[in-house]
Request: fold
Amino acid sequence: MLVDSHCHLDFPDLAAHLPEILERMRQHDVGCALCIGVNLEDFPNVLALAEAHPHLYATVGVHPEYADADEPDAQRLLALSAHPKVVAIGETGLDYYWQKDCPEWQRDRFRTHIRAARAAGKPLVVHMRDAADDTLTILAEEGADAVGGVMHCFTETWEIARRALDLGFYISFSGIVTFKNALAIREVARKAPLDRILAETDAPYLAPVPYRGKRNEPAYVRYVADEIARLRDLPPETVAAATTANFFTLFKHAQRPLQS
Reply:
């Protein structure tokens, strides 16, 4: 069995085709997927997916790219995360690529999410783009190692990966790892401990080879896991089993499907 540790099934491109997307998940033995919250306005749609399907779970948070979104406080995040199908806080983090001019509010929002995660006892889903040093510094300052989490869609160097691993975080690989020119990411996929990696799609974005440039979906997480296996010279079944086990170790409130 495989798990897609990060996708956006509530986004229109996927929500409009949900029955066939879920069927393709089944056909590709993708037994579970984590639907990521990116703002509070759309969180009810994310939660509804998780409530309607036993093999889907949700997170709650406000993405750093959403400058004009409803701003959460820690108590609101804590209350929303109390739902049994909400297994993590996020997507949160820092993005200095899209938001170059006003990073201070991003840092404040990130700290709020970390404090909510610590209070909830649930891990973090962290977005990090052009902001590695500040992201890791804030995680350390706020004691995020108490709950851990995942560096989603990791695109940094092995040095940055080691710092995240030292904080107790997992490293998650998206379809980018299948791109031949993604040398730094492929190096991390070779070196990261097998018991600290996850596979994801970030669907509908970043489709892996052979679907690069097309709409992504959870079924394609198999191509991500297979490429990690190839890079590490391991059987695909070994990486599938490891990334699945790692998902349920990190997201302790998610229940592994009985048929797996």
